[in-house]
Amino acid sequence: GDPDQPIIMGRTYHEDNRTPGSLPGTKTQMTIRSKTYMGSGFNELKFDDATGKEQVYIHAQKNMDTEVLNDQTVTVRRDRTKSITR
Domain Gp5/Type VI secretion system Vgr C-terminal trimerisation, which positions (predicted)? Predict the structure, then answer.
């Protein structure tokens, strides 16, 4: 690659860039979290790979839109719950 245009392949956590959760309690989770500009909100995509508790979690601070340009299939093999509150 071009050393003047590096490609970031990953990142590590440190004092200025802390993990989204506390360790070791969140050691099975991989989280991508943004921060609202000039606010206290955030958007989040989290994967939890704890054995028997695997989960994909999406948090939208305000609106969430999905666009599918072709087919979409949704299969739920157990329960499904949907709540709309104001």
Answer: 30-85
Q: Are 72 and 51 in contact (CB under 8 A)?
A: no
How far CA 38 is from CA of 9, 26, 41, 67, in Å, comes to 28, 27, 9, 28
Residue 18 amino acid letter: R
Neighbours of 43 (CB within 10 A): 15
pTM recorded for the entire structure? 0.73
Domain extents for the chain?
Answer: 1-62
Q: Nearest 5°: CA angle at 67, between 28 and 85?
A: 70
Weakest mean pLDDT among 30-34, 47-51, 56-60, 67-71: 30-34
